[in-house]
Amino acid sequence: xxxxxxxxxxxxxxxxxxxxxxxxxxxxxxxxxxxxxxxxxxxxxxxxxxxxxxxxxxxxxxxxxxxxxxxxxxxxxxxxxxxxxxxxxxxxxxxxxxxxxxxxxxxxxxxxxxxxxxxxxxxxxxxxxxxxx
Amino acid sequence: xxxxxxxxxxxxxxxxxxxxxxxxxxxxxxxxxxxxxxxxxxxxxxxxxxxxxxxxxxxxxxxxxxxxxxxxxxxxxxxxxxxxxxxxxxxxxxxxxxxxx
Lengths: 133, 101
What we know:
The structure holds two protein chains of two kinds. Chain A is an alpha+beta fold.
């Protein structure tokens, strides 16, 4: 079941608005165990959407990012698509220090029990809420 | 971000979430405060109002920590939520600076 969809232009301010909107939409559904996962979902969404804005679309405000959220069984799926080339975008245009620090975000996402699939400029993140302690 | 200086301690009190869209403004404010670092021996970052953070926000803290300790001052982060503490633990940031109540 699709529970959220939003297309937005590439800026960190837009990311903030979309994350707040998506979290509110999820809260309203009263999904079991969502309260336990809310902080980590908030963090994950900011990481993935910031990355799409910065490294996917290069802050080009004419390029869009699309977020859709589905809920199937006990699993939340978050699909993010940008208009970038999807090749080595994580390694382009930022210095080593920032890269190292920002990559910690991806390590945290994995440690937060999310599964991550990347295919070109699309990213699918999933979280089985039954696995959330 | 508000700063309060008492004796040799500067408290930097965040007023908004520590996220990418706020960090540019925070960095500009921090530049205004840097000269005052000379007069204190400790910087405390107060996270009481911070509910959400992202890795840009974490990088802000790490850069602040590096600036402060490079000058021989001590650095502490205080009033973190349990979620943010867990995040910092996952990122092994406790190895670098103290998390205090």
